[in-house]
Design goal:
Elements lengths: L1 H24 L5 H4 L4 H4 L3 H8 L12 H7 L18
């Protein structure tokens, strides 16, 4: 329980600048105000950026559309099973 409380406190403390912006403007900050974006990595790491950009990880945040689903997603072969308790906590 102590780890959870500390973890939550640290998360809130680290999010403080974004929360202050939201408090002053009465709205949440936009992603561009909080995140640097992949373009900032590209400036110094061009070769890695080129490999990453065309990977599934690099394409993961593409806007969803029926065309995107048809071209890139496959139906599940079986139902997805989720554990009630993560295996690592047992």
């Amino acid at each position: 329980m102590k780890k959870v409380v500390v973890s939550v406190w640290v998360s809130v403390w680290l999010a403080r600048p974004a929360l202050l912006v939201a408090e002053q403007s009465h709205s949440l900050p936009s992603a561009s105000e909080v995140l640097a974006g992949s373009g900032s990595c590209r400036q110094c790491h061009e070769s890695f950026y080129q490999l990453w950009a065309i990977s599934r990880h690099g394409l993961a945040m593409q806007p969803y559309s029926p065309e995107f689903a048809r071209e890139n997603l496959t139906p599940a072969q079986a139902p997805t099973k989720a554990r009630a308790t993560p295996k690592w906590t047992r």
